[in-house]
Each structure stands twice: as C-alpha cells, then as structure tokens.
Amino acid sequence: MHQTIHTIVFEEKAGGGNPAPVTLDADDLSTEEMQAMAHSWGEESVFLMKPSRDDCDVRARYFVPLHEMEMCSHDTIGAVTVLVGTGRVTASPVRLETALGQVLVDWEKDGEEVKVSLSQFLPRFTEKNPTAEEVCAALRIRPDQLADLPIESSATSRFKLIVPLKDRETVYALDPDYEALWSLCDKYGTTGFYPYAPEHGDDPLLFCARQFPCRAGYPEDPATGVAASALNAYLIRHELIPLKEGWNEITVRQGEAMGKPSIIYAACYRENGEVTATRISGKARLG
C-alpha cells in the first residue's frame, strides 16, 4: 500500500524551499492516479516503486500537476532523504532508475540532516535559440536590461533557457507574459526560462535566478536543481566564473521573489579543461 511523505527541499530559511511529496510503494498506482495526485497537490511529485532494471535499486517517476517529467532534482533529494530516514536504503550511492536512465545519488549524514548529491548528465547546448527581442517581449523587459552575453538553452538533464540579466533588481522585478514565454519554449524546444544575474557582494560564484516552467500547472518554481545545474554548465562554457581543475561549484539563490527563499549548489567537474561530471547538492526536511 502506498504512503506519501511531504518534504521541503533546498530551503534557505523558514518559508522557503520547494515542496516535494514523496510516495513510497507506488507500484499499485496507475499513471492516471499518479498524475491526479500531483494535480491535487499542485506540486512536483515523485513516486517510488520497484525497479525494472537489475542495475538500479529504486524506480522513480516524476509528475508536475499537468504532465509527467523525465527527471526532477529536488524531488530526488526529497526521495532519497525519505528512503534514508525510513531505513529503506543504508548505503551510498542509491542507484535510481529514471526515464533518463540510471542516476547515481550520493548521500551522507550531516548531524540530524542528510546531505544529498545527485549526478546529472554531461552538458548539452542548443544552437537554435530565441532572439533578444523575443525574450524581452516574453519577460516584458527592455533590451538594455539584458547582459551582453549569449541567450542559450543549456541542459545537464532538461533544457532550460539561460537568460543573463544585468542585475539582481531586474531578476526580482520580472513579470513575464506567460503565454508568450510558453510559446517560445515550444518553438525552441526548451522546458522553461531561467533568468539570472550575479548576486550582490564579492562572491563570483553566487547567483540569483528565477525559473518559469513551460505549462507545468504553476507559473514559477521556487527551487530548480536541474536549472541551476544547466546554469553552471553555461557559466563554465562561456568562462564566466573562475575555473579550476576538479569540482567547480556555484551557489544559486532562487525563490526570493516568491517569498520562498531557496538555495541550491550545482557543480561541474573539469579534467584537462573538459567537463566530465555534473552534480546537484542540497538537503530536504519533512514538511
């Protein structure tokens, strides 16, 4: 019999983070039932069941209120936290079966909390991207509010359109035309807009961002690990952060404009100047 445990992931401070309902023993649920449950909660939801692959420990299916997704990082962090907390997994990494393939998820105890790091895939980028004029119209901003950097879809799992803005204030003041934004997502094959800017201060690895998903059932997401990972890949591709061999980690603050302050850690591993691994890290608590 299935059981749902509600978690909050990537919480920076009280009231923040991204809800992630985790349903255990979901083998008895149909696709339609899982979709209906996600719709009733209005949240990205993960359903765990027995794997169909011998090289995986658990199978995960992910749903937003309006459709199924291939992968969701914050749901995965919530899921592994629940699996560890209920004693269903006792060793790291957890081998997760997803629609994108096997995902390795490392975890370690940090006092009473569980720190979870999940592998992503190697970076990919699209050659066909919207123009600055199209993006400005969808975000309802002036061209001079864009940074003089490429607008480009990036992915380490799902494609997100990385939109560089000049400053934090512009990021937080955004009020998109959602129909226009979704139309551009359809036209250019991306799953959402991820406008970002450097945060105030001297830390070159700290950024703020917002995520506007394409027809997910809600207009904005308070914390999006796959988008933060896509941003990190973009920043490394265009050499916009200090680079070194080994892990290059950025910190992304998201959700502030929604009153749900969240914090995400995304890293790419570089060897001989090439990215050879990517990961997202964060924590969850029972909601």
Give a structural overview.
The protein contains 6 helices and 17 strands. The protein is of the alpha+beta class and 287 residues long. Helices cover 22% and strands 37% of the residues. α3 packs antiparallel against α5. The chain folds into 2 domains: 3-117, Diaminopimelate Epimerase, Chain A, domain 1 (Roll), CATH 3.10.310; 124-286, Roll (Diaminopimelate Epimerase, Chain A, domain 1). The chain starts with a strand and ends with a strand. The chain has an 8-stranded mixed beta barrel with strand order 1-2-3-4-6-7-8-17. The protein is globular.
Mean pLDDT: 96
**How many domain modules?**
2
Strand order of the largest sheet: 1-2-3-4-6-7-8-17
- What's the CATH topology label of the largest domain? Diaminopimelate Epimerase, Chain A, domain 1
Largest sheet: 8 strands, mixed, barrel
CATH architecture of the largest domain: Roll
| Main CATH class of the largest domain | Alpha Beta
The H-and-E topology, N to C, reads as EEHEEEHEEEEHEEHHEEEHEEE
Look at the helices and sheets and give the structural class: alpha+beta
CA-based gyration radius: 18 Å
The percent of residues in helical segments reads: 10-25%
